């Protein structure tokens, strides 16, 4: 159990690295949470600091999820899990899921910045790249399509989060694709999607009210963040 706690803690700490806050403070002398939407997310960085800083922040946030699932998870040196594995997944994949989830939690509730981070989309994407690349590609396509059609980053992020478990469901039950460990993966991905949608609850309210800021707008309205 101690080994598991160590990798979970490390994943949380990596996820907690406040990339956008560090970028804004070191290069521009202010906290990104005091500008634009007030959120420590990649979209706010794009809008306030420019596209170059935005790409760097989103890239690093994505790599936090990749690092947790591909590097930190391998630090779990115990050959057996501290609990009985009832899933069809191998033990390492279970550790990957746990570490990836811890990184997302760290990104959303970062210990280094008063537990006020981003929305977890980029870090969640990094986690899913290694676990289910096909479904991740579908989610990216959905995000870009919705973003292009409606220009709401928040709506695209929410749609992409929902598309991930739906694509697994459709592939397995309608297209009859054989997906290894389907039953475990569908519940896990649905849980991740629910968490990411929950983290966008304020954006959902603004979307329903018609006050959400579009990606091309230059006003100071609040928008979605990664």
Stretches where pLDDT is under 50 for at least 5 consecutive residues are 218-224
Total beta-strand segments: 0
General shape: globular
Radius of gyration: 18 Å
Q: What class do helices, strands and sheet pairing give?
A: mainly alpha
Give the total of domains: 1
H/E series: HHHHHHHHHH
Number of helical stretches of at least 4 residues: 10
Ends apart, CA distance between termini: 32 Å
**What percentage of the residues does DSSP assign to strands (E)?**
under 5%
Labels describing this entry:
65% helix; 0% strand; mainly alpha; disordered C terminus; single chain; 226 residues
What does this structure look like?
The structure is a single chain. This protein has 226 residues and is an all-alpha fold. The protein is 65% helix and 0% strand. It is built from 10 helices and no strands. It has helices at residues 2-16, 19-28, 42-49, 51-70, 91-108, 121-131, 133-150, 153-173, 182-199, 201-209. Helix 4 packs across helix 6, helix 6 runs antiparallel to helix 7 (133-150) and helix 7 (133-150) crosses helix 8 (153-173). The protein is globular and about 45 Å long. It starts with a helix and ends in a 17-residue tail after the last helix.
């Amino acid at each position: 159990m101690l080994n598991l706690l160590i990798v979970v803690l490390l994943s949380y700490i990596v996820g907690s690295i406040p990339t956008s806050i560090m970028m804004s403070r070191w290069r521009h002398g202010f906290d990104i949470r005091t500008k634009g939407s007030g959120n420590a997310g990649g979209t706010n960085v794009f809008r306030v600091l420019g596209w170059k800083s935005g790409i760097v922040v989103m890239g690093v946030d994505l790599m936090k999820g990749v690092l947790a699932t591909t590097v930190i998870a391998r630090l779990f040196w115990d050959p057996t899990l501290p609990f009985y594995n009832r899933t069809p997944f191998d033990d390492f994949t279970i550790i990957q899921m746990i570490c990836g989830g811890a990184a997302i939690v760290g990104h959303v509730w970062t210990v280094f910045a008063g537990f006020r981070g981003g929305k977890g989309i980029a870090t969640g994407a990094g986690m899913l790249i290694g676990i289910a690349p096909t479904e991740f590609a579908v989610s990216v396509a959905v995000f870009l399509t919705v973003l292009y059609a409606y220009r709401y980053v928040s709506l695209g992020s929410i749609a992409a989060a929902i598309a991930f478990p739906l694509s697994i469901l459709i592939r397995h039950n309608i297209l009859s694709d054989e997906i290894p460990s389907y039953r475990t993966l569908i519940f896990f991905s649905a849980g991740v999607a629910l968490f990411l949608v929950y983290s966008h609850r304020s954006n959902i309210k603004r979307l329903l009210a018609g006050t959400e800021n579009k990606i091309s707008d230059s006003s100071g309205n609040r928008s979605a963040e990664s």
